[in-house]
Amino acid sequence: MYREMLIQLLPYAVENEVTSYIMLKAKNYDFLRSLYPQLPSHYAYTVCQDAVERVKGFLRKKRRGLTKKDYPEVKNISIWLDEKLFRLGYAFIRIATHRGWVEVPLETHKHYWRYRNSWELAKYHARIKLDKRERRLTVYLVFKRDVGEYKPKNWISIDVNEDNVTALIDYTPIIFETGQKRITLGYYYRRKRVQEKWDKKLGPKNRVKKRIFEKFHERDRKRDIRSKLAKIIVVEAKKRRAGIVLEKLPKNAPKRMLEKIRDRQLRHRIHQSAFIGIQKAIEEKAREYDVPVIKVSPKNTSRICPIHNALVVYDGRFGVCTVGGEVWHRDVLAVWNLYLRALQGDGGFALSSGGFSLDGSPVPLGSTATSEAVWIEKSRWLRWNSLPPPYKTKR
Ligand SMILES: [Zn+2]
User: Fold this and answer.
1) What's the CA-to-centroid distance between 279 and ligand 1, angstroms?
2) What confidence tens digit (pLDDT) does each residue in 153-184 have?
3) Distance 320 CA to ligand 1 centre (A)
4) What's the CA-to-centroid distance between 253 and ligand 1, angstroms?
5) What are the two backbone dihedrals, phi and then psi, of residue 17, each rounded to the nearest 5 degrees?
6) Number of domain units in the chain
7) Which of 86, 126, 144, 361 could link 122 by a cystine bridge, Cβ 3.0 to 4.6 Å?
């Protein structure tokens, strides 16, 4: 019945480009109710929500020319339930059906209890999937937490690079070396060597190769590095009640970072591992710690000197401001610009004539800004849980 209702709704929604749940429901409620009067009325609501999500996704694809179909296909169905359609006990779920309430015992996942005890059930979300062959229901519950996200008093901006992550903390740029490039390259060549050797002996689908790859633990090591660094940064932000500023990445092209790498496969791999991964890890940790995150456009962040509003001309990682003549490290320049962009986008902060100010106190952005950067080798920060107080190390 749910499937039928969904299938009936979708063509209407697509033809009329209805992407509002309210609209869809208003126009179709009576029809849906007349289709299956024995079903509890709230199914007419949830099927509309479901349909709207599907239609939105479909129209997006269509606009990009990614689909030739006229309507979204209905392959997988999970039935959406709102708060009127289910009751959750500790070890059972009760679902409203056309035959009244049906109680189903729950076989719980280990995460279930963790969330069940500390989080509230979101008002509108539970989805169930019917597995006819196994005579089973899979229940997806959406939990929500009252997010204690604070209004940030300041920002920590982050610039993710091929080989380091630079953070601007208390107006001091801190460069965390990640060695991601070396790790990625190292693994890449090791894999290639193994592949060539065993493919020649056993053909391309051999198991020996696979087993050796598994021993590399490439993924684990990278994940470890990422989450460790993300935690250090997020904890520092939380301590200061600061928000985190990340670059808004274009979907498939972190160009600035990859422009120098010619090898296509290699570009792909570095892109995958180093860049997106670290951003995601930071976002995840931030969510966990209720630290707000904003994303700003990275356009020109490593090109324009914020003091003189002038072009910076590079020779390698270092560049010279064409007006002031001061030297900038590319990544340091980037975090300063990201930071300032966050202030501007924040609305609450005005630009004063002497430069930028935050809460009335001037941002110490002077010609010394570039030389103040702190470099931290990976071997050091990997052992930390947070930044040690003076966080000064040799360059
Ligand atoms: Zn300058």
Assistant:
1) 29
2) 889 999 988 778 999 998 889 999 887 666 66
3) 8
4) 28
5) 50, 45
6) 3
7) 144
